[in-house]
């Protein structure tokens, strides 16, 4: 990625990946839907804001966004954000309306970026679900390792208990299990 004289990164969108903006860490963020819809960042945001207003009793975004809040219901079965249309999301979070409108399932970034109330709860629930997902993956890997390694097989119950209690195994045990 090149830099212009001001030191800011400069690049043109790669139409295979639709890279349009630089993230906080200096890495490009893929914003494919915007480019495919022929929008820049401002018109994309306006489209999202119009969608939220269409779900609401209010006629303007600033009032409409105050009608919505995270309900505390979430799942990790994946799906599509009903606000922006992003697909292949792992975690979805339900937002509900204080005016009795139909609830919707959104990705965490839409809740945070478009200032929907309850974003702190979304962050905590996402962290909890990510931790649970890592635990389930590590337990599955541990079970697979027990099939290959007699020491792991003999100690499987104890290793599973430690994994559940501490959330991870020591680097030495991970190396033995090859996970």
Describe this structure in words.
The radius of gyration is 22 Å and the shape is elongated. Helix 5 runs antiparallel to helix 7. The strands form three sheets. It has a three-stranded antiparallel sheet. The protein has a two-stranded antiparallel sheet with strand order 1-2. Mean pLDDT is 78; it is low at 1-24. A hairpin with a 5-residue loop joins strand 3 (19-22) and strand 4. The protein folds into three domains: 2-36, no CATH class; 64-117, no CATH class; 126-177. The chain has helices spanning 32-36, 41-55, 61-64, 108-113, 119-148, 150-154, 156-166, 171-177, and strands at residues 2-3, 9-10, 19-22, 28-30, 68-75, 92-97, 104-106. By secondary structure, it is of the alpha+beta class.
Features:
single chain, 179 residues, alpha+beta, three-stranded antiparallel beta sheet, two-stranded antiparallel ribbon, 7 strands
Quick structural summary:
The protein has 179 residues and is α+β, with helices and mostly antiparallel strands. It has helices spanning 32-36, 41-55, 61-64, 108-113, 119-148, 150-154, 156-166, 171-177, and strands at 2-3, 9-10, 19-22, 28-30, 68-75, 92-97, 104-106. It folds into 3 domains: 2-36, no CATH class; 64-117, no CATH class; 126-177.
- The geometry reads as elongated
Encode the helix/strand succession as letters: EEEEHHHEEEHHHHH
Helix content: 40-55%
DSSP helix count? 8
What is the CA-based Rg, rounded? 22 Å
